[in-house]
Amino acid sequence: MTDPTADTTPGSWQPTSTAGTTAATGDPRAALESLRAEIGKAVVGQDPAVTGLVVALLCRGHVLLEGVPGVAKTLLVRSLAASLELDTKRVQFTPDLMPADVTGSLVYDTRNAEFSFQPGPVFTNLMLADEINRTPPKTQSSLLEAMEERQVTVDGTPRPLPEPFLVAATQNPVEYEGTYPLPEAQLDRFLLKLTVPLPSRQDEIGVLTRHAAGFDPRDLDAAGIRPVATAADIEAARAAVAKTTVSPDIAAYVVDVCRATRESPSLALGVSPRGATALLATARAWAWLTGRDYVIPDDVKALALPTLRHRVKLRPEAEMEGVTADSVITAVLAQVPVPR
């Protein structure tokens, strides 16, 4: 088991001695731990984002990946998909994309003289919504029902989505021409917002070394990435996470952190109760991944930024002063008393 006293930042989750074993062992934690090594065959230096995607799988949540072009956001999701025995589809969001292009539509069958439903790419286990902020709001909103209720309603008939189901969306934070920022209601549907930073100098050297040796990011099979976890492993892991103990003091701590954001003078909008339940869920998943069957305050702190940063709204005057959502949440974590 991982040492409970070890560093608890999301990127510090390290495989235990069982890492590298496949799903055949019947150990869901070992299967999920081996994902890091498998994704590492293609992606260098983005461990926190890898961990965030695994946490989202465990919590039945969705992930918004934000980073400048060229930091391997799309490659990260493609590598995760290749490491899982799950169905996956990719949608490139563009200004002319229509809702039916995502959800599916009724198509007239001339042979039977009736309409039949043609499922869209959302009917999958892992959907990569690439550059989600490049499509208009009506197409963005076509994902709301799918993300929240795990179903799509067409012509009055609800159609359930497969399980597990995860939307991994990407967006570029520096280019705003021809984009449609996601509204707060849709941002709140994402369990985590993960920032994908530029790599360190050493990691960037590693990227170039791999490319010089013949690595092709368009050919993950040649990189040796193979499925190491199945839907059954994910379901077993979710059941184990659900048994992770949350003491009343920890629940109260989560509530106090979220309520403190609502009182911050820098924020026009604080974290809602849905955000509080999300933080509790991600903290439980993180505790289980690090080898514990109980949640400690450090688990809450470790997942507070990715879970809450997109659920708050800065006041215009605070934004002009250079205040960020991350700095406000960090200040709140420093001020709220930690249970002993």
TrEMBL record:
Residues 1-14 have a biased composition (Polar residues). Residues 62-192 form the ATPase AAA-3 domain. Residues 15-27 have a biased composition (Low complexity). Residues 1-27 are annotated as: Disordered. Residues 259-330 form the ChlI/MoxR AAA lid domain. It comes from the Bacteria. It holds the Pfam family AAA_3. Gene3D superfamilies: Magnesium chelatase subunit I, C-Terminal domain, P-loop containing nucleotide triphosphate hydrolases. Coiled coil: none annotated. PANTHER family: MAGNESIUM-CHELATASE SUBUNIT CHLD, MOXR FAMILY PROTEIN. This is MoxR family ATPase. It comes from Streptomyces chilikensis.
